[in-house]
Amino acid sequence: MRRTVLFAFLTSLSLAAAATNTARQVLPEHPTADQKGDIEWRLNDWPQLTRYAKDNAALPPAKAGEKRVVFMGDSITDNWGRSVGEFFPGKGYINRGISGQTTPQMLVRFRADVIALKPAVVVILAGTNDIAGNTGPSSLQMIEDNLTSMAELARANGIRVVMTDLLPISNYNDKTSSQRRPPADIIALNAWIRTYAAREHLGFVDYFTAAVDKSGQLRAELSDDGLHPNAAGYAVMAPLVQKAIDNALAGSM
Length: 253
Hints:
- By secondary structure, this protein is of the alpha/beta class.
- It has helices spanning 2-23, 33-44, 53-58, 75-78, 103-113, 128-131, 140-156, 177-180, 183-199, 207-211, 231-249; strands spanning 69-73, 94-97, 121-125, 160-164, 203-205.
- The protein is globular.
- It has 11 helices and 5 strands, in the order αααβαβαβααβααβαα.
- β1 (69-73), α4 and β2 form a beta-alpha-beta unit.
- The protein has a 5-stranded parallel sheet with strand order 2-1-3-4-5, sandwiched between helices.
- The protein has a single domain (43-249), classed as SGNH hydrolase (Rossmann fold).
């Protein structure tokens, strides 16, 4: 009887470990030197505080009357104006997106990459990589808690907050997209973001409605991989968030 119970317990642990490993990138059994270095680097700077450290230090103080805007996010923000699309030419907005990041990582670097820059407005787009399990299993409640903490930190420091919902994903190019990012989870998180922003009188941008097609997927013409916007996708997003920024700067949420 004891052996049966022990076997069942060990089996459950094995299954749990397997499930966890499918959600994360784990070190191979025989890693290369480059793989070892990558893992060590990520462990040494898990939130990637060094990514923008030099840029932040070199950023001059805001000029009198300047209304800085910082964009905090993952690859959808990081790519904007760097690898694809235009990032608000002539506006001087500050991009602090980091590809692959989740909300706990953003929360750790929020003070260095947002608050210390003394912006008037912060735009937060985050959560899709949490759903995908980039830094391990994450519940919707955990994502909501981290988004709440970022918003509260910003407001405590006199920064107006614009929250955006998540873009839909599509399987047109990658059939695994909906497995890593279940559409139902995206919809549930988006509903919470909308409600939270309204309750707390924050700015809100509805990217999802503008980007979704009749089948509930990301419009094919707005993305080349079913997840990240292409130039056309950013062209749809830009006026929506610009309107929210203008409202925030004018004091109207």
